[in-house]
Amino acid sequence: MGRTLQNTMINLGLQNACDEAVYQLGLDMEELEEIEEDAGLGNGGLGRLAACFLDSMATLGLAAYGYGIRYEYGIFNQKIRDGWQVEEADDWLRHGNPWEKARPEYMLPVHFYGRVEHSATGAKWIDTQVVLALPYDTPVPGYMNNTVNTMRLWSARAPNDFNLRDFNVGDYIQAVLDRNLAENISRVLYPNDNFFEGKELRLKQEYFVVAATLQDIIRRFKASKFGSTDTVRTVFDSFPDQVAIQLNDTHPAMAIPELMRIFVDIEKLPWDKAWDLTKRTFAYTNHTVLPEALERWPVDLVEKLLPRHLQIIYEINQRHLDHIASLFPNDVDRLRRMSLIEEGGTKRINMAHLCIVGSHAVNGVAKIHSEIVKTQVFEDFAELEPEKFQNKTNGITPRRWLLLCNPGLAELIAEKIGEDYVRDLSQLTKLHEFVDDDLFIREVAKVKQENKVKFALYLEKEYKVKINPSSMFDVHVKRIHEYKRQLMNCLHIITMYNRIRRDPTKLFVPRTVIIGGKAAPGYHMAKMIIKLINAVAQVVNNDPMVGSKLKVIFLENYRVSLAEKVIPATDLSEQISTAGTEASGTGNMKFMLNGALTIGTMDGANVEMAEEAGEENLFIFGMRVEDVTELDRKGYNAQVYYDRLPELKQAVDQIKSGFFSPKEPSLFNDVINMLFHHDRFKVFADYEAYVKCQEKVSELYLNSKAWTKMVIRNIAAAGKFSSDRTIKEYARDIWHVEPSDLKIPPPNEPRDTAQDKTPNGTAA
Q1: What UniProt keywords apply to this chain's record, in alphabetical order (predicted)?
Q2: Cβ neighbours of 67 (radius 10 Å)
């Protein structure tokens, strides 16, 4: 979520008033804002997407709730020591959190372990261990519409009789100390992005958020006028018409068997009725195609922790496979491929398959990704139910990612086209009229220059490196992962360095290359990549032959509040994943909206950015998905590129020989070995096209006016990438609710009681 103060002031229309009031107290608002900690309760893009979605849902007047876990420790703070990443605990609640309100009156029990008893009346899950879920509510204000939604985060609490109710020998002290075991569930965020780690505590976290949330939803449904309260047992027929639940990846997939358990075991609905309601309630968003990221939980772990849920999953699978077998008799391989249970070695539950079977809609997050989902990853399922599969291209909230972080540009745009674009970003197309307006071109360039000077001062303060603010700010910020190819950027840096040294008198367009992002603590290769970038920076930044022509900075502890500083100051945005690996990307959209140009592959939302702005207004290079597929078919041989390209060979040899690590020449052996022998992401295959494309970037940068005109064309084409548009599509195509443009009257104005009735609508 990042910081809340400035976003709240903007959405409430109070920023100027607050700035003025604080100024009159002799304080500086910006200094005050810098004190607030980021709420970093997720990893990379998936978590930030949820935050943008909450902002858009409130702005569109949807009755929507965001549910998650109130981690005591969020994503770790990254320190760089001697070029290596070191993790520190993110004790973000140390000074308290003024934005949250504990709601002990809505505390709910969550069960674990135990066993299942079958009888004539049905299944009973008994002898369980109970953990309490305490909700904390954070307000989510819409933009200037007097709507405030709720984000409800659950915290784990041990019940007061914890370890004291059972045949306890009387070690009261130990029993109280053991409360920590239960409360550890919400202690810390697992820091993996695009990687599955099958740990018991992680599964506990996933079930904890799901079980508490579903109880909360059902309590609200029963209390509302939609749930019939005439009889002892509520009629659930209208449940999917009143409730829509969107699964953000497979992490909350246990919600599907949990809702079935509630309907069948507790509410005593027949299976077929329960399954129909469940499928119509859930929809699933897929966020990645990387096989190592797909959640596959061992059956024996689920059996121990959630025995009843395993039985329900088996029953879902049996009925699912019976259906497939009736359509494709004797096709045993299809049954194996489509099963929710993977046999061979340890039996595992494929959570993505569970989500597809248990949902009425499945979507990818960019056109190209949704195609890959349909034709490759889940092709058997898409063949069976093509109408279930959709695309919903991701977006970003223009409130945080333009108004808040780049007020200079936001104001400049408002002067030209009015202020309405903030709620309807498609209006940015009106800027096309000003592409040839010399004054506007100069003003856009001036805003960018001011942002660069401000960020350069920040860098000099934090990193003690002198930055040339007229150099091109070439920025690559995102989680560190092999598929995102920070290594390819690194090879380009080394190539530029070698070119400067080869001919110091030749014209060179000065660059400040900024790379930032966190590596998962257990991801060895990602940590080596960080070390390599810092080792290269050490050499480049201290070579007098290079001077101010080339500077390399590794941005420490990249997070939302730092993104808000670096993105408005960026000239060139690096979006260079291997085609077919980045589901969408959202940083790409933030840079586009803030007046950076993109160098990128035809991957994720880059494809649609090129479609909107015209491919000639992005720097597109490298293999397309078809080329990657063809190269896989032929077999990728890194050596061929190394032998054919002298500059690549030179750069690789320097890393290999210890040019960047003289005290330990073999330091980067693992990196070199990976690049030659098991590089799944084919860095060498795109190196030549990347370097040539970068030359075109430098050439255009020399012509400030032509560069800025291209920037304006990009901003004018960025309207599609508002999360408001994304959410309108979810609302229309999946949730079946109508966004409301009605501005609720403020609380100080009396309301007409007749209009106070809530219109019929689903709560998402």
Answers
A1: Allosteric enzyme, Carbohydrate metabolism, Glycogen metabolism, Glycosyltransferase, Phosphoprotein, Pyridoxal phosphate, Transferase
A2: 22
Q: Give Cα separations from 510 to 451, 480, 574, 693 (angstroms).
A: 18, 25, 17, 16
Q: Which residue ranges make up each domain of the chain? A: 447-720
In whole angstroms, give the CA distance from residue 240 to residue 236. 8
Active site residue 367: no
Q: Catalytic annotation on 590? A: yes
Q: Where are the alpha helices (DSSP H) in 34-114?
A: 44-59
Sorted by sequence, the CB contacts under 8 Å of residue 461 that are 6+ apart come out as none
Q: Which CATH code is given to the segment(s) 447-720?
A: 3.40.50.2000
pLDDT in tens, 396-416: 999 999 999 999 999 999 999
- Using alpha carbons, list the distances in angstroms from residue 175 to 62, 110, 159, 305, 503: 45, 20, 12, 21, 72
Report the interhelical angle of 15-24 vs 5-12 (nearest 10°): 120
What are the strands, taking DSSP E only, across 95-167?
A: 101-102, 108-112, 115-119, 122-126, 129-141, 148-157
Question: Residues 616-665: pLDDT tens digits?
Answer: 999 999 999 999 999 999 999 999 999 999 999 999 999 999 999 999 99
**Residue 764 CA: distances (Å) to CA of 174, 497, 721:** 43, 52, 22
Name the active-site residue from 287, 392, 511, 559.
287
Assess whether 204 carries a catalytic annotation: no
* Residue 287 annotated as catalytic: yes
User: Which is the catalytic residue, given 484, 492, 559, 682?
Assistant: 484
Report how far residue 400's alpha carbon sits from residue 564's, in angstroms, rounded to the nearest whole number: 8
